[in-house]
Task: inverse folding
């Protein structure tokens, strides 16, 4: 199952957490728990 740290909306703050639309989320949050179902896979660069 993808986690927030794999989402294109996630901007890493540190290794345990990141910013998502101005809200702090845990890096290992399950994308199925995404409140807006906005998970999009991060593009491989
Ligand atoms: S949009 Fe959803 S899945 Fe993506 S980082 Fe934010 S909470 Fe996580």
Result:
């Amino acid at each position: 199952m993808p986690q927030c740290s794999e989402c294109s909306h996630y901007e890493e703050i540190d290794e345990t957490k990141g910013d998502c639309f101005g809200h702090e989320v845990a890096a290992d949050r399950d994308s199925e728990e995404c409140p807006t179902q906005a998970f999009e896979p991060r593009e491989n660069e």
Notes: The two ends are 21 Å apart (CA to CA). The CA atoms of residues 31 and 37 lie 8 Å apart.
